[in-house]
Each structure stands twice: as structure tokens, then as C-alpha cells.
Amino acid sequence: MTLSVLALTGCGPATDDIQAMVDGPAESYDDAVALREAVVDAGVECPGTDQLPAPDDPETTFLDCTNGLMGMAVAGSEESMEGLLSTLADRGRIPFLHAGNWVVLSQDVAQLQQLQDELGGEISTNP
């Protein structure tokens, strides 16, 4: 009720902010294997199970699904996540879904949309 009153008077958060409060923050994952489990639970195939640490940041982990279509990463820190997103935005040509401390890359935007429905996050595409 309080959020509704504040929104109606113009003193409260915007509609998108209210929806984010209702939905809650996106899940964070401990590593790429945990993210892979969530991806598979969401109904998307990912046969690969071997994760690798980032060379300069062993807390950041990567996993290739080995199907040539999807890969993922879980950042070990906020700074690492910012760097990862910056790199993907600047150099990447593959669409990706990201939220919290994780990112999933896939050539198949339909798969990213399916994951977005289950895991949340935002899909970014590059020209």
C-alpha cells in the first residue's frame, strides 16, 4: 500500500523499480558450474561441465557448454563483472544475458530469452 501511495503522489519509485522490488534481485552463483546447473534446470542443454578460472582472477570462472552454442561466466567480484561486461560490449558480437555476478553467451537469442524467463537478467546484443 505504501509503495502505491508514494507512486501515485510522484514521490515514490517508478513502475519498473516497483516491479524489481517485487521480483527481487537476480540470483548470484558461486561458480560457473552452479550457473550451469541453473541453466540446465531451466531446460537449456549444456553438456560441458569443466570450468576454468580466469588467468588474472581465479575467483572468476568460465564454462563452455561444448556444443558450440553457449558459454557462461561467474565473476568473482563486482570489478571483474564490470570488466567482463565492458569487454563483451566492446568486442563481442554474440548476444548475452547477464545479471548479478553472471553472464551467459549464446548465438541463439531464443535460448537467452528462455533463460531470462527462468533466471531473470537483461539480454544485450551487439551490432
Taking the sheet with the most strands, its summary is: 6 strands, antiparallel
Low-confidence stretches: 1-24
Strand content: 15-25%
Order of helices and strands: HHHEEEHEEHE
Order of strands across the biggest sheet? Answer: 1-2-3-5-4-6
Q: What share of residues is helical? A: 40-55%
| Structural class determined from secondary elements | alpha+beta
Query: Could you tell me the number of beta strands?
Result: 6
Global Rg: 16 Å
In terms of quaternary structure, the protein is single chain
Descriptive terms for the model:
127 residues; alpha+beta; six-stranded antiparallel sheet; 5 helices; 6 strands; disordered N terminus
Brief write-up:
The chain has 127 residues and is of the alpha+beta class. 41% of the residues lie in helices and 23% in strands.
